[in-house]
Specification:
By secondary structure, this protein is α+β, with helices and mostly antiparallel strands. It contains 12 helices and 16 strands. It folds into 2 domains: about 60 residues; about 270 residues, Major capsid protein gp5 fold.
């Protein structure tokens, strides 16, 4: 049976078609969900056919949103070469030496380059640095694919660890007259925070035929092979990483109720029911979560959740009968919840008893990603003959830098 408003197959690479299908699917979703709610109100239960219809539309809505996201990411991916002109002779020399190494294994040119540069990003781990333009584009691709990286503050470092002092309390400030005596202020409370950069690796493989093909841009090929792999690893670490040889995810810090909140913990709002929204006025918990965040942070805040949780949130209405979740207003925007953007992070937990399935916060203030300068390549033509492996490493770290800027919705009674 064909479902009214169910999206048809979208044209590949055409976000406008997927965008139109998404809005048609959401319109059908609202009709089906309103029908389900009316049945519950009159008969205390919904019809099985209606539930099945709603499930199919909801699944189609997720599929269409996923295709739209992928098409937008694909269109936003930059080309490493062919669209920019690098006039710097040293950059051109590095690119030529790097291509020779990738295609043939000839490393003399890169060795000479790194001896001249004595780069701080070289490190003792072997391999050679990719040219800076390629490194910048790889990081830009990661920002397009990795959801938390796209929201967080990103710092480039040349050492193994990034250290910073962060004010725990309010800034020391006040008002005074031009000629009045300045009152003595208390010393600021600062937290000494460190963010070590851990090694992240990928090992794409290529045939020698591909490498011999002069039409193949090896830098572009490398970026395309590793951006999704790196982004998936980063995406998991920035959310649930345990800090052991990887970044510390924001869900791996201690949590507490807002009444008991102290620095070093993330505050949470309970839903009032284990593993579910409260049976009545479920939208109130979303509202409570929003207003748990400081006003100065709220204006730049976003929701973070996975698709399954978003599917549940999609059914919530305000007291006026309006749906809290809305599809994106334009192709290049995200869906919204109560007017705040929604970022999908598949490593966020599903709704379950005690899970922190929804985060809301100003992540640029709350979470820090550190990138150590230098993406390195080690060419290995021996381990997987007849393929050539490229052991690619970058160093990245991350953790919460402001524990007051991220709040959680905990699916628990208290």
């Amino acid at each position: 049976m064909e479902t009214k408003g169910q999206p048809t197959e979208v044209k590949s690479g055409d976000p406008a078609n997927a965008f139109g299908d998404l809005h048609r699917a959401f319109s059908a979703f609202r009709e089906a969900n309103d029908e389900r709610l009316a049945q519950i109100e009159h008969r205390l239960s919904s019809d099985v056919v209606t539930e099945e219809k709603l499930f199919r539309i909801d699944r189609a809505l997720d599929d269409t949103k996923r295709r739209l996201d992928l098409q937008i990411v694909e269109k936003s991916r930059p080309r490493i070469s062919g669209e920019r002109t690098h006039n710097d002779s040293e950059t051109r020399e590095h690119k030529m030496a790097f291509r020779a190494y990738m295609r043939t294994g000839e490393a003399a040119g890169l060795k000479t380059m790194e001896e001249k540069a004595m780069s701080a990003g070289s490190g003792p781990d072997g391999g050679f640095l990719v040219p800076q333009p390629a490194e910048r584009e790889i990081l830009q691709r990661l920002a397009n694919v990795s959801p938390i990286r796209a929201l967080a503050t990103v710092r480039e470092i040349s050492t193994a660890t990034f250290r910073k002092a962060f004010p725990v309390g309010a800034p020391v400030a006040g008002w005074t007259g031009e000629t009045d005596a300045r009152a003595q202020t208390t010393s600021p409370q600062l937290a000494d925070m460190s963010f070590p950069a851990m090694e992240l690796f990928a090992m794409p493989a290529a045939t020698q035929t591909l490498l011999d093909d002069a039409a193949v841009d090896v830098e572009q090929w490398l970026a395309e092979e590793i951006d999704t792999v790196f982004a998936e690893q980063e995406g998991a670490a920035f959310v649930i990483g345990d800090g052991v040889n990887k970044p510390t995810g924001f869900l791996n810090y201690p949590v507490s109720t807002h009444a008991d909140w102290t620095w070093g913990k993330l505050g949470y709002t309970p839903t009032g029911a284990a593993g579910a929204f409260a049976t009545s006025n479920a939208s109130d918990q979303i509202i409570d979560l929003v207003y748990a965040l400081r006003a100065g942070y709220r204006q730049n805040a976003r929701f973070v959740m996975n698709r399954k949780t978003q599917s549940a949130v999609r059914k919530l209405k305000s007291s006026g009968g309006d749906y809290l979740w809305q599809p994106p207003a334009s192709v290049d925007q995200s869906a919204s919840l109560m007017g705040f953007g929604v970022t999908e992070a598949e490593n966020m937990p599903d709704i379950a008893a005690g899970s922190n399935a929804i985060a809301f916060g100003y992540f640029r203030r709350g979470y820090l990603v550190v990138d150590r300068l230098g993406v390195r390549i080690l060419r290995d033509p021996y381990s997987a003959k007849p393929y050539v492996l490229f052991y690619t490493t970058k160093r990245v770290g991350g953790g919460v830098q402001d524990f007051d800027a991220i709040k959680l919705l905990k699916f628990a009674a208290s």
